[in-house]
Amino acid sequence: MISVVYLILLALPSPTQPSECTDDYYAIDLIPTRRVPAARQAEGSVRLTFVPSPFGVAVDPNGSYRYNLDVQVNRLGPVPGHEYTVWLSTPNLKEVVRLGPLSREGHIAGSVSWNKFLVIITLEPEGSAPVRWTGPVVMRGLSRSGLMHTMAGHGPFEQEPCTVYGYY
Amino acid sequence: MPASSPDSIVWRMPPMDMSMPMLPGLENALPPTPPDLPLQDPGLLSAIPGEVLTLANGDSLYLTATPVRRQIAGQDVVMFGYNGQYPGPLLKVSKGSTITVVFQNALTEPTTVHWHGLRLDNRFDGIPGMTQPPVEAGDDFVYELRFPDTGLYWYHPHIREDVQQDLGLYGNMLVLPEIPDYYVPVNRDEVLLLDDILLDENGLIPYGKEVPTHALMGRFGNVMLTNGVTDYRFEVDRGDVVRFHLTNVANARAFNVNFGGLPIKVVASDLSRFEQEAWVNSIAISPAERYVVEVLFPESGTVAITNTIQAIDHFRGEFYTHIDTLALAMVGETPASPDHSPFFAKLRANPAVSADLASFRDHFDRPPDKSLTLSLRVRNLPIPIMLSMEIDTLYVPPVEWNDAMPMMNWLSTGAQVEWVLRETDTGLENMDIRWDFQVGDVVKVRIFNDPRSFHPMQHPIHFHGQRFLVLETDGNRNQHLVWKDTATVPVGSTMDFLVDMSNPGDWMAHCHIAEHLQSGMMLGFSVKPPPINR
Question: Which of B451, B470, B475 lies nearest to residue A56, judging by beta carbons?
């Protein structure tokens, strides 16, 4: 058992000795909700790269990053009469964009100009194109920027309650 | 203005957003280096706006670095200037010409002048200890400059850039084309140097005397300067097409420049035109980069040129929109004459650039010759900073557009922070790296900006004396090819630079965030002349 743990530890990236050319820092892991039996074993991720730009980094006039998204999901079982549809949303769900249905290979590409966002995959009736999702959420993920959370009530500032700053 | 003495300079904490609470344990902390500022002297002359000097082949220029008096945002401050001007004089020269610059150092500290982006004779690159000794106070040095490439360049010190450049030692060089239709006709040109400076109600926040402060993120200013002033404005006619020559001379700040929502045509960058012009809605420009863009002003009124960013508030864990006005275009009622809008409407391809690139395309797909990882080491930072930054690095943005942690950044100095260029193959770091090339070598350099280092940040990488193409970012081929000397590697990105080793000598490559350079982030490379055939 100890040797197994040791091997696992060896395989983990060390924070001080990164592997060369790691480019998955901003990748989004998609987590299955287990609400749809055919998708309980699904695994997937979203790779982000900058939209091509003369400046290397791509931002819109408002300063938000412009990313191309490459969504890849595996182990999604078919559900007759339905398709897996990918959505993008701001964290507060005020704005939702339908990216479209996943291909048979579990792939779709698109772009986004939000700095913090959710990627949501739902099961929708085949051929439907609703403005918002109607079916169950199958998988979801959060952009890496979502890890930025208020320090108001935590860590070194814990003497100041979150509620003062509007967090509940 | 009373005279001051070194003893009168004390540390003052940089201005902070008052809603951002002080990190516990840092209430009385100060940077571990003495504070430094140019001394007040009643005899100092007030600086004047920069002049435009058109120089012919063989001309000489006398350039002097002096302390000057400046009025910025209501503050009476002592800064530096070339020839007593802000910015330094704009030098207009023709492609292919050579000029002589007789430089005199009238400061009380050593300096040099680096002619950023020029593929010039190595002896005149201005690198202390590499291409020349420092120009000591009161001494002079004669530079001979040649201008082989049309484009926009700039000059600045290469000793304590974090201080001397920030205090106003910078100016542009505009190398004019030898062919008339190099650019399309426009109604006027505007040369804009973008900068920022850090002030409070008592004037300039002091600099670190022995090592730079703000070593983590670089010294962001809180007051924007365009061509050295806070209220730069210019007049145009309705329908005028204006060609802007933009240079970012800030220590650390990257700008996202908007022209009031007007479409922007990107025409050229550091050393050449783009192979294919492009429409954009804003310009992301990092320290030391240059872009040439064209804008049509169709309606009368005032157009604000802004820096519009999504800043980060780490305390609240949020992005928020922050806008600074950089300049105002006052658009009059008189219609443009002549009307250049038909030229503006079209995007041009530049066959001359394509022809220049042709011999390099064979190198596009081969493996890299050199590989670098960008990282950093820290030691002896205050414990609250270490703890807080470990939380902070749960997420780091690709580009830091604002100083999101001004207190922690201020307290970090070059004595505690070492920024690192690490060669992947050898493990060598910074100036222990010494690459050897020959003139004519085409070298692919892969640069990875490690997002899992202690405090990653974007790095505008500058190669001295050569030109390069950005070939790929994160495996995606760059569709906007242009010859550069400085390009930013965002956090987490891997970029391939194809460097044309065309200019012999001993050179540097480094991060152009001034505090990162002063904290070690540089390497050396040598380009040998071609062998002589007997």
Answer: B470
Q: Is the ipTM of this complex over 0.85?
A: yes
Write the residue in B395, B475, B490 that is nearest to A144 by C-beta.
B395
Using alpha carbons only, what angle is made at residue B345 by residues B487 and B177, rounded to the nearest 5 degrees? 55
**pLDDT at A109 > cutoff 70:** yes
Pair B302, B378 in one domain: no
Whole-number pLDDT of residue B391? 66
Q: Which two tokens stand for residue A69?
A: 């998204």
Token representation of residue B244: 């802007």
- Residue B534 pLDDT exceeds 60: no
B336 plus B365 within the same structural domain: no
pLDDT, tens digit, 9 for 90 and up, residues A136-146: 999 999 999 98
- Per-residue pLDDT tens digits for B260-318: 999 999 999 999 999 999 999 999 999 999 999 999 999 999 999 999 999 998 777 88
A64 — pLDDT class (breaks 50, 70, 90) = very high
Chain A closest CA to B56's CA: distance in Å?
A: 33
| Chain B interface includes A66 (CB < 8 A) | no
Q: Which residue of B372, B448, B488 to mutate against A (max A Cβ within 10 Å)?
A: B448
SS3 label, residue A9? helix
Cβ–Cβ contacts within 10 Å for residue B58, how many?
Answer: 9
Q: Token pair 């550091």 is at which residue?
A: B270
CATH numbers and ranges of domains, chain A: 23-165 (2.60.40)
The structural domain count of chain B equals 3
Residue B200 lies in a domain: yes
Give tens-digit pLDDT for A114-167. 999 999 999 999 999 899 999 999 999 999 998 887 665 555 555 555 555 555
Element (H or E) spanning B411, and its range? helix B406-411
Distances (CA, A) of B119 to A24, B124, B153: 37, 10, 11
Whether the ω angle into residue B87 lies within 30 degrees of 0, i.e. cis, is yes
Mean pLDDT taken over chain B = 95
Residues B150 and B80 in one domain: yes
My answer on whether B469 and B434 are in the same domain is: yes
Sort out which chain B residues have CB atoms less than 8 A from A49's CB and list them: 473-476
Residues of the domain holding B172? 6-176
Q: Does B388 touch chain A (CB under 8 A)?
A: yes
Report yes or no on B534 lying in a domain.
no
pLDDT at residue A155, as a whole number? 55
In a domain? residue B480: yes
**In this structure, what are the phi and psi dihedrals at residue B157, rounded to the nearest 5 degrees?**
-70, 160
Both B194 and B264 in one domain: the answer is: yes
| Residue B181 lies inside a defined structural domain of this protein | no
State which residue of chain B sits closest to A63, comparing Cα positions.
B309
Angstrom distance (rounded) from CA B150 to CA B182: 9
